[in-house]
Amino acid sequence: MASRAVTIQDVARRAGVSTQTVSNVLNNPERVRPATARKVHAAVDALGYRAHAAARRLRTRRSDTIGLRLAPLPAGISGTILDVFLHEVTVRAAELGLRILLYTAADREEEIIRLRELVASGDVDGVILTDTQAGDPRPAWLTEQQVPYVCFGRPWGEEEAATHPWVDVDGAAGTRAAAEHLIASGARRVGFLGWPDSAGQGASRCAGWRAAVVERGLVDEAGADDLVAACPDRVADAMQAAAELLARHPDIDGLVCASDSLAFGALLAGGGGVGVVGFDNTPVARAVGLSSVDQRIDLVAQAVLDLLVQDGRITAGGAARRIITPELRVRRAVIQDPSLMTANGESRGDALA
Predict the structure, then answer these.
(1) Taking phi first (over 0 means left), then psi (-120 to 50 degrees means alpha), and beta for anything else, what does residue 296 get?
(2) How far is CA 200 from CA 86, 131, 185, 310, 348, in A?
(3) Which residues form the HTH lacI-type domain (predicted)?
(4) In 3-state terms, what secondary structure has residue 80?
(5) Among 112, 175, 200, 227, which lies 20 to 30 A Cα-Cα from 266?
(6) Ordered domains of the chain (ranges, CATH)
(7) pLDDT digit string, tens, across residues 245-301
(8) In the sheet that 65-69 helps form, which strands lie side by side, from edge to edge?
(9) pLDDT digits (tens, 9 = 90+) for 300-333
(10) How far apart are CA 83 and CA 48, in angstroms?
């Protein structure tokens, strides 16, 4: 005979409290004294009680669900970052008893339409926005509708004026660490391969490299621009841009790249003895032994939920913000100029990692 399911009354009897107190601990913990909550949680753990989620949601009129847009399929190597973020935030949300609901939208305007449907139907209590930019209409709409939300990505150009919570990675710190690693490894002419945007994330990553090479005396401010190449975030474009930069400056012995897509293209461009460091620490970087900056997406996901969830409930987080410091993962580059290889394929000299 199957054993009887544990009920909320069983938990109340074991903890020596009322069923309403147990309900408050599980659904509205802010109403209960910490000592009482500890007794109830101990009884829950001892009895293996599992609240009926559907019934709880009907009582509280909360879905315990966070909406997150499923981004279009990425075109480049570094496009997997949002996939990693999705995994990390889903795992951490589940640990809090929350769910992630994925939705699709072709652009920001269509996303607002989709969010309007999800909020009106009660399917989501909060939202995580990605790919935010200055003038983005989504934060303003969510604020007006009083829907709790957090952005993964800062509102470039509006950071100080922003009234909503956001989490971002310090890209400048990452590229600075990459450049300093190359310099410490012996590089004396370190270039930068980035994107053709003059503001936002691309500019931030370029600024980190620039600060390192100027402060270390490798180049002055005026000369730094000549060591920068820019192209779309595609391997083929990076191959061409890197080849042209190396042709102009054959003394370059290190390259910091704004993404792993660009770094992989730079490696394929040849340039034996040129140390290459990417950004994003993608599976490709790990597979080919490419040094790369790890954004620490696990910490990003945790910070996002810290701002969105308080005492187990999805709630508005005000204008709070968190900036995550990335970490450089050092490896040995495996693609070198053919002239540096022996007849049996072994290296005559290691390229800088």
Answers:
(1) left
(2) 23, 11, 29, 30, 41
(3) 6-60
(4) helix
(5) 200
(6) 65-170+296-326 (3.40.50.2300), 171-295+330-340 (3.40.50.2300)
(7) 999 999 999 999 999 999 999 999 875 689 999 999 999 999 999 999 999 999 999
(8) 99-103, 65-69, 126-130, 149-152, 166-169, 321-324
(9) 999 999 999 988 889 877 778 999 999 999 997 5
(10) 33
